[in-house]
Design a protein that fits this description.
two-stranded antiparallel ribbon
Length: 157
Amino acid sequence: MAKNKRKNKTSITLPNKTSARRSPCTLAELHEDQNVCYKIKALIYDLHNMAKDKSCENRTLQTTDPLYISAPYFTAEEAMSIKTAVVEGGDGTTTSLEQDITAKLENFFEKRRASGDCRPCGPHDLVPVYLECFGLVKADLEDEKFISRLKRSGLGV
């Protein structure tokens, strides 16, 4: 008769960082999470550079979400936290980050139609919208340490 090597040990469940966070979070809270912030920068960098860099293109082609906020960049929990993050509008109202991105994209395409050219150029059209919505600047994507880490480690954190 085989001995049960596992004694009746009480299992301890550690709290999940994502589930411990109240939902929805704020944009500031997203910025506090260095891993999520790195992944957001990686996504925007890839969208900007996909025509020039095959690894950027390969990562973006693996996404399943129309806004690219999905694997391989984010876990399902991270993607949900990002999409539902609360952002404040200039008029004091609040909305989800996903709604904010969608509204800004609508404005972007309305301006293109007004100019007589309503063709989207592709995913890189998202870059200025994402920079604005996530509170980043283009210099954040040009940081040598960030680029080196992305090229060396990819999305691994």
